[in-house]
Amino acid sequence: MADTPEGEEGPARPPATDLFPIVAVGGSAGSLRAFQALLEGLPADADLAIVIVSHQEADRPSVLAEILGRSTRMPVTQVVEGERVERGHVYLSAPGRYMTLQDGKFHLAEGVERGRPPLPVDYFMRALAHDQRSRVVGVVVSGTGSDGTLGLAAIRSEAGLTLAESPEEAEFTGMPANAIAAGVVDVVSSVPKLVERIVAHSQRARVPQPPGEAPRATDVLERVLELVAARTGHDFSGYKRGTLQRRIERRLHLHELRDLAGYLQFIEQHPEELDALRRDWLIGVSGFFRDPEAFQVLEAALFERVRQRPDGSTFRVWVPGCANGQEAYSIAILLLEATEKLGKGVDIRVFATDLDDAAIDAARAGRYPEGIAADVSQERLRRFFVIEDRHFVVKKDVRERVVFAVQNLLRDPPFTRMDLISCRNLLIYLQNDTQKRVVPLFHYSLNPDGLLFLGSSETLLGFDELFEPVSRERKIFRRKETRRAQFAPSEWALKSPGAQLRGPAALETKRERVDLAEVMRRQLAERYAPPALIVDEQGSVEQIHGRTGEYLEPAPGHPTLGVLEMARNGLRAPLTSAMREVTRSAARSVEREARVRTNGGYRQVRVRVAKLGDGRLGRPLYLVTFEPTPEPAPAAPPPPASSEAEPSPSDRVGQLQAELSASREDQQSTIEELQAANEELASANEEVQSVNEELQSTNEELQTSKEETQSLNEELHTVNAELQAKVMSLEQANDDLRNLMDSTGIAIVFGDESLRVKRFTPAARTIVPLIATDVGRPLGDIKMSLEYPDLLAEAEKVLHTLIPSYREVRASSGSWYAVEVRPYRTARNTIEGVSIAFIDITRTKRAELAAAVAQAFENDVVQAVREPLLVLDSGLRVLRANRSFCRAFRVEPKDLEGRLVFQLGNGEWDIPRLRELLERLLPENSSFDDSEVDHEFPSIGRRIMVLNARRIERTAGGAEMILLAVEDVTETRLRSEVTRE
Fold it and tell me: For the whole model, what pTM was predicted?
């Protein structure tokens, strides 16, 4: 049954997180594409959270978040301890760590132990199902192994949705195929189709039920109960309604139906849905050593019970509701360990029953996914399991002690004389009145002081007078004796739910047509054919014809159908000889004469063994016939004697001698047969032992190699995915670099350590005549159009000194280039050649030349002016002063250039009128003319000056400058003043 109760059956606990689905996606090797396809198909505003769990090594940095981040607009992050899950996010499991979810928060556990298979998907899905219950969607995609199978089973047991990628679509089929084979997958399809189901499921989860749905749900449930009982014969009326209702809602969502009325209509159109619903109602999930603390207490109790049992006794266990048998095998393992430790010869018999015939078939096989390694210790795995194709199979010595059978606990007769009954998490699904009928049944089935083992959420419902606690906390009880019987077997079927289904039914019988030819053949065979048998190679009887009692009789001891064991005295030796000859030779038939002791006398018989040559039989079979032959005539008639007269001594001696002779022949034949068989067995045993040792050694080596190969394969696929992502990034960077170099038009030639051409940009062809086949040629063999004959020597110098080189050279075409040679440095900071960049500076050179010419022209003009002249920049600093200015105002040229005009002559030129003209008037106008300034210079006296200024640009697009012309009119003005006076 289910590992934990659901709904009202379980202990109350607050919701772990806001009500939105959490999708757990599991995969291993080759699952990257499936992860990307799933994220690409999900809308960015999907009302759900995605948790991706994959197999990753702990000691390797993971780039999975970076890779998957390109496939979705949702945030993709790696889980950290204590982080709360939020809708609209994608979470990745931490490499090499187990992960759980509790109350909506992630928790990281230690990684997998060495020697155990990594099972992070099972580990997380089981924890997620326990925390979130029906809000979980489990998805298994491409991957190897069986990780995820038990996780999906746990999700399905809590009424969650389980999906798997179609094996035909998956790169690696192991994980989805194993989950599908285990019957725990609801939908199998391609990843895009699965995304559609996930989105639809999340949308339905947010739609509230319409008003008035509850009353109709009750009516629908009762109708469905009737339909299931009519089709399957199983009555679930004793089950809790809440459990059944939630399972119906799960089926409704699974078929994408809108309401319960639509589900009823769907059932009418698809009756097979009732079979699927019945399987869902059974909730067939179990686990090995579930609730380890409880099993520790049970182990101690069983150990004490076995210690008190005498050798040769039988310890009987009943496990009702066994599901897939894991709990039954767990108890059998505990009892086997106890008998081995105590050295007790106690026979163990475990009877495991369930209503689900498919679960019983799976339990009999004893084959479980590798996920059980999380629940079973390494020592027990080695002792009680064998590994077959990444599955653990229960060994034969354990399976032989467990008997599985289909049984309806509420209807069929119970097992009796039990020493232990383990019924865990079955009662919680039953209504209270039904539980109160089952508890007395368990009391009836147990031996005095027998043990009852219940689930953590189950109680005795007030039947304390029937049981006393061994451990009330772990729900282990001991049977008590009572004066009044609490259970009446005769009334059980009458009170059981669905008892009406067991009543006599009017079965219609069909008349068979009589085959007269067959009747005639049968009559002729019975009248004329001798007694005969059909046997196989081992002498086991397959068919008997006629009366063979005169030749065969059952051997004492355990019943057997071996013809040699049943042969009467005198018949065994010739029959053995005939059987041996016909099976080992090419003869079609062999005959032997025999004298058989029967009914106090002897009878002569001819034994004939013939091969059956009908090819339709499929295996070798033999026909053995017994034909009586007449006795040889006596030499003289026997003396008359009455029937009551004693035989004469001579007759008695002859009879004894005949019997002795027949016995000796039988004994000799048996001895020969035994010796031959012993020799063959000894030889076969030696061969088998040798082969077994070789196979065991080979199996261990293959298993180790398989695990190593699998681990390496998964790691290689992860590395391959990362390398593909890096290659894509490198291609993108290469494209960006190529477009950058093409757009800049810079000519660059890359050379290796031997100064051979390694790569070049398209622009380099205008300077160096290069073609694609020149890659690998020495740079010295390529003729360049530059006036730079020592370029190769300069490159060698840079390669050895690692000091960049820069030179401006002229091409034969008249163009100018700046040639920059630098070491070629890799990302690992190693030097693997040089890079030579050719930058076209022709326009710059021409501009410099024009500026130089303009500068020379400018200097000549300034010096040629006879009046004092200053050339100022836009900041009113002196750029140049002509010789006339220096003579007139008695200053040196070196004391003028670069100084602010108002600071000339130690501040003599800080003239208010000049400042007004230059700072206010000139910025508003491009010039001013004939502005007179009268100023007293401390060094040269009073000067009356007429100032003219022009604001001009030095060159096209160049800086601004100001020409300030100073005309000294002091003498003219003073002379004029004297004349006026």
Answer: 0.55
